[in-house]
Amino acid sequence: MDQNHKNKDSKDEQLEQFRQTNTGPDKQMTEESGMKVSDDQKSLRAGKRGPLLMQDFHFYKKQSHFNRERIPEKVVHARGFGVYGDFELYESMKDYTMAKFLQEPGKKTPLFVRFSNFVGNRGSKDTAVDIRGIAIKFYTEEGNYDQLSLQFPVFILSDPMKFMDVSHAAKPEPKTHIPQATVGHDNFWDYVVSNPESAHMVMWLMSMRGRPRSWRMMEAYPINTFRFVNEKGISTFVRFIWKPKLGVHSLKLDEANMIGGVDADFHRRDIIEAIESGSYPEYELGVQLIAEEDEFKYDFDILDDTKLWPEEEVPLKIIGKMTLNRLMDNFFAEEEQSAFNPSNLVPGIEFSNDPVLQGRSFAYRDTELYRQNSPNYEELPVNRPIADVANNFRDGYQKHPIDTDNVHMHSNSLAGNTPAETPPEQGGYENYPKKVEGNVTREHPSDSFEDYYTQARIFWNSLSEPERLDLIESFSFHLGSVKSKEVREMNVEMWANVDTEMAGMIADNIGVERPKNKHVDVDKSYASLSQLNSPHSAMTQKVGVLIGEGFNGKEVKETLDTLKENGVMVEIIAEKLGSVTGEDGTVLEPTKTFLTVHPSLFDAIYIAGGKSQNQLKFDQIIFDFVRMQYMHLKPIGVSSGKDSYIAQTEHNNGIGVVSATDNPDFANQFVAAIAQKRFWDRT
């Protein structure tokens, strides 16, 4: 069995009929028509030195197909990557919803997940400071249920009328089309200061949350307010949260910028390596529930997507787990053609009057109608539900099924009025009969929608000191690229509403006067908002082992065994590929060379050391690795007798450096340091 398909489920079995192999000993090249090709290397011409002939139909077919291999990239979230997995229910939600995939504990539902970046184009970098999308397609027995999340619990706007404006503002400057995949330019920050409801999400964006260590280590929030509806017709407001089992962890700003240059595919490479190694990414699904009668109980409007539902006020119930365990077979056919729509619902999950959700219900389908040039995109294998499909939709571009019915309208008598409607009590979707009244208006749903700074202030109050300093650095980095001094000044005054001292420090960094405004009078904070309170583990952290000939074989072997026992991923890095031999005859096979990797790509390093034909160059490379790891506050393990690689001065305290010299518990201490990830008190 193909290793990628060992985790089979009903969706994988359905996709099998669409997979084809074009290579192998019995495969002969053909045209699309099935005609065998005798020459695929040379064009048809009139004489050896003559012009090419238009009658060369094979060249025409080959080149014209290539010319049309791309479809328009998504206007936002263009850069993405998809994987398959399943969702397993822990706890029945029958009391709240009729959705069948949420009824029986232990039930598994296959799914497809697409991770994406909002701003950059298809060829941009993974590690940009950006809004990330996590789109999940559940292939349920009742049809596809699509859930579209961000790595933040809040959105940048509270009304869909501004979808186009914020997207235009964040995209590259229209004259030069730069900068790519960053909001470090005038248009975005002019939008922010002109639309203060953006304040809360921009605080999250500028925080460490805007630079996840990997997709496996970031939360996902569908941001919108939905309804659960149970069999009795009782409605409960619900928001969803996906919690990564590895915790929430991030890259430092300069680290993210550096990685984007040396490995633009850092996040997708990370998830590929994790799945291929069997370290499947796992996320637990939590729900926050608010009874219909409690809609107005809180000091925020539950329909406002610029406001979060604090876990401390609206408790989180963990109900299941998502495991990502299978890679795609073909990027274009599956990832690029995948399409998601928040209107793909199942009975028991319903829209609320959340304005942004209402707007998204139009935007997503309309986008795919343009991109894929057809209303039939849901017939594509990756989008096709595993539930039976029967309707009167016909024709159009990319029509795959051959409909053999002579009758294709409803109602009818010729076909017994089929396909027939399904009553709600038998599983047909029925909209919740919510009461609607009032005058037609463009007013906000409540005054709470215009409270722009309270929750942004709470977010600031909730951050640890390292997170606050990081956020100020990120603001300064992006606003420092804004050319208009007036826009920089207005931003400083705006952010003073969140925290006066924070805005003052930003002002000092970007060359404008300190603010006159004072922050809102809010002292509340929530521990759940600081990612330093997130779970920490050494699992799947990547350690670079720097090694040469004559290393301490016994110690290195024991250390590598301990790392692997704790789920740590190891790359052995040497001057060249082949093998290196320890002083006791231990032989190791390097997986990378100093030329093919960069220090920023590792969560920790282990200096095994050794000899080299060019010892000076070898030592200098190790010093370069140490300098960068030390600067980024990452763990460093040092083999016995190699402490000279760590320059000790009165200005550095060596926190997070673990030495094996006279240390029988070195391997376990190094694992504990790897789990900690950063040493914020390091000097």
UniProtKB/TrEMBL annotation:
Binding of heme occurs at 114, 163, 360, 364, 371
What SMART domains does its record include? Answer: Catalase
Say yes or no: keyword Heme present.
yes
**What are the boundaries of the region Disordered?**
1-43, 404-446
Q: Where is the Catalase core domain?
A: 30-418
Q: What is its EC number?
A: 1.11.1.6
Q: Which domain of life is it from?
A: Bacteria
Q: Gene3D superfamilies recorded for this chain? A: 1.20.1370.20, 3.40.50.880, Catalase core domain
To which protein family does this belong? Belongs to the catalase family. HPII subfamily.
Keyword entries, A-Z: Heme, Hydrogen peroxide, Iron, Metal-binding, Oxidoreductase, Peroxidase
Looking up InterPro entries in the UniProt record yields:
Catalase, Catalase_clade2, Catalase_clade2_helical, Catalase_core, Catalase_haem_BS, Catalase_immune_responsive, Catalase_large_C, Catalase_sf
Q: What does this protein do?
A: Decomposes hydrogen peroxide into water and oxygen; serves to protect cells from the toxic effects of hydrogen peroxide.
Residue ranges annotated as compositionally biased, kind Basic and acidic residues, are 1-16, 28-43, 432-446
What is one Gene Ontology biological process annotated in the Swiss-Prot or TrEMBL record? Answer: hydrogen peroxide catabolic process
Bias (Polar residues) occurs at 409-420
Which cofactors, by name? heme
Catalytic reactions on record: 2 H2O2 = O2 + 2 H2O
- Protein name in the entry: Catalase
